[in-house]
Amino acid sequence: MSHDSVRFGGREVRLVKVREAKGGPVISFPIDRTGVHITYHPGQKPHLREGTRKGGTPGRILAEMDIDTIKTLTVEDFKSMFGYPSHSYEVMVIPVESLSALQEMSSRPSEPPYVYEVLFRNRIVYFMKGRSLKQFLHESPSAYLIVDPAKRAMLVYDRAFEEYGPIRWGTKRPLGNQRIRKLFELHYATINYLESLPDSEIDLPEPDEGQLSEWRERMELVDSEMKVYKWSKVLGMRKIPQRVSLLGS
């Protein structure tokens, strides 16, 4: 199976297709029946466009990549993607063996329990206020994935990031300064567009009841073995009862 496809039961589904066209390559997304695609034309801005409409009319352009700005990005622009939370809302901190867990999870995206099993392989999760995260990471240096619901972001941390803080990935929009956001415009525009489509426009097979049941059992097993801790600057580490399933949090 290629890296641009996923398997649903016995069916392999292509997520991305690349073809050469006049003026440059075209990347399309077969899961979407509308024909949305990203096009690269020499001398023009790469753009996300809807499929051709009836009568051969080109679809509207949904987003463009500002190549001129991207060419002038500096180290300081990239540094703006890093940072520690300063808010008092709760974040979830998940220890991982190494950041290679990210690659491992992405290898089987169509199998949710596998992603869950890799993410929580250590069966430990910490909760704390966002503003306490910097001290916690300083005192317990390791590799972590951090969920920040208040900022709708996933943070990735390793010991090498201590000076600048974890790198921040927004779930709905890019984080960092205005210039660095230009680098991810097509990525987020594509995700937001596909998520906005009605189910009737998505061509992906649905898992059957047996598969859903097996997935649920695997995830509930991980959940039942989880050790949950709360950490604060004043009280330190406290183990707490797992009153709420992580599956429902």
Q: How would you spell out the order of helices and strands?
A: EEEEEEEHHEHHEHEEEHHHEE
Number of domains: 2
Strand order of the largest sheet: 12-11-10-8-9-13-14
Molecular shape: globular
**Sheet having the most strands:** 7 strands, mixed
Instruction: Compute the separation of the termini in Å.
Output: 33 Å
Number of separate helices: 8
Please report which band the strand proportion falls in: under 5%, 5-15%, 15-25%, 25-35%, 35-45% or over 45%.
Answer: 25-35%
Total strands: 14
Structural class per helix/strand content?
alpha+beta
The helix content is 25-40%
Query: Uncertain regions: pLDDT < 50 for 5+ in a row?
Result: none
The averaged pLDDT comes out at: 83
Radius of gyration: 21 Å
List the helices and strands and how they pair.
Elements lengths: L4 E4 L2 E4 L2 E5 L2 E5 L8 E3 L7 E3 L11 E4 L2 H4 L4 H5 L10 E7 L3 H7 L5 H8 L4 E6 L3 H7 L3 E6 L4 E5 L9 E4 L7 H4 L3 H12 L12 H16 L2 E6 L3 E5 L9
Parallel strand pairs: 9-13
Antiparallel strand pairs: 1-2, 3-4, 4-5, 5-6, 6-7, 8-9, 8-10, 10-11, 11-12, 13-14
Characterize the structure shown.
- This protein is of the alpha+beta class and about 250 residues long.
- The protein folds into two domains: about 5-65 and about 185-195, no CATH class; about 80-175 and about 205-240, no CATH class.
- It has eight helices and 14 strands.
- The strands form three sheets. The protein has a seven-stranded mixed sheet, with no helix packed on it.
- Helix 3 (about 100-105) packs antiparallel against helix 4 (about 110-120) and helix 4 (about 110-120) runs parallel beside helix 8.
- The two termini are about 35 Å apart.
- The relative contact order is 0.15.
- The model has no long low-confidence stretch (mean pLDDT about 85).
